[in-house]
Amino acid sequence: MNSHSLLGIISSIALFLPVALIITFRLFSNRSFLALAICYFIVGAQNLLRLGVFSTPKEIYQSMSIVDNMLDAPLMLMFLIFFSTSALMTKRIKTCIYLFLGFEAIVLALVGFNVMSVRIILGPDIVLIGTISFLFFLRYVRLSVSNTKSLGKAVMASSVFISYTIFTIVYIFYYLLKNQKYQGDAELIYYLISILSSILMAIGIAIENKRFKKLDELKHTRKELATIYGEKKVAAFKKDSRFLNS
Fold first, then answer.
1. pTM assigned to the model
2. How far from chain centre, in Å, is Cα 20?
């Protein structure tokens, strides 16, 4: 096994780290985190098959690679809904999902289920996810400076934005420039950014899970107060309490 393959296996294992945390923290009940887990799992599994870790016919992992790229934008857009700050923004992201699925259906109908369709779809995919994640990256990084509650989202948004920014370079060298040397270098860059983004995502998930736990504790506290003092007194207490509103 050469260093290239070893790095690929390490990056694949790194991709399973966010999936493991989502399962461990039971965050899969949230559709956004479920979409993220599915996306990371498919990419990690497909990479392992392509690297020959498991004995699999070439046709199978190539087909899985095409499916992986087809699902990338819809799944990542579903995850980005988690960062939405309004019902209108959520609606717009959902509209992007439907439009992109329609775009993919048209490409598949015209070009077929092959690498060429992936080459056509990945360009808009990277631009769309990169642009939306950049907006969330700016928002939550700015908020995290003065409000640590936004730190988890800031780290996760950073993971998505950084990875898709570098994926632009990988896309150009791997799919547009037909040079074997460039493709090898593009794979190395892809493996490295996958490791970095997976670690950042895992850190963000861990931080966000702590915030979820605090919110759950506050909810239980309010329920207990409601049982003891009644709803009206709790509402008044909640309005005046910095603790319950924190």
1. 0.86
2. 14
Cβ atoms 77, 93 nearer than 8 A = yes
C-alpha span between 109 and 56 (Å, rounded): 28
Residues 101/78, Cβ–Cβ less than 8 Å = no
Q: Return d(Cα 67, Cα 174) in angstroms, integer.
A: 18
Report pLDDT digits (tens) over 53-97: 887 787 887 888 889 999 999 999 999 999 999 999 999 999 999
User: Which amino acid, residue 225?
Assistant: L
Tokens 């939306």, residue located: 132
Q: What is the DSSP string of 157-201?
A: HHHHHHHHHHHHHHHIIIIIS--HHHHHHHHHHHHHHHHHHHHHH
What does the alpha-carbon distance between residue 141 and residue 154 come to, in Å, rounded to a whole number?
5
The span from the CA of 96 to the CA of 60, in Å, is: 30
- Which domains can be identified in the chain, with CATH numbers? 3-211 (1.20.1070)
Which amino acid is it at 72?
D
Residue 222: band (very low, low, confident or very high) from pLDDT cuts 50, 70, 90: low
Encode pLDDT of 24-53 as tens digits: 999 999 999 999 999 999 999 988 888 878
Q: What size, in residues, is the chain?
A: 246
Distance CA(246)–CA(238), nearest Å, equals 10
pLDDT at residue number 63 = 86
Write the CA distances from 195 to 16, 88, 221, integer angstroms: 10, 34, 39
CA gap 204, 155 in Å, rounded: 5
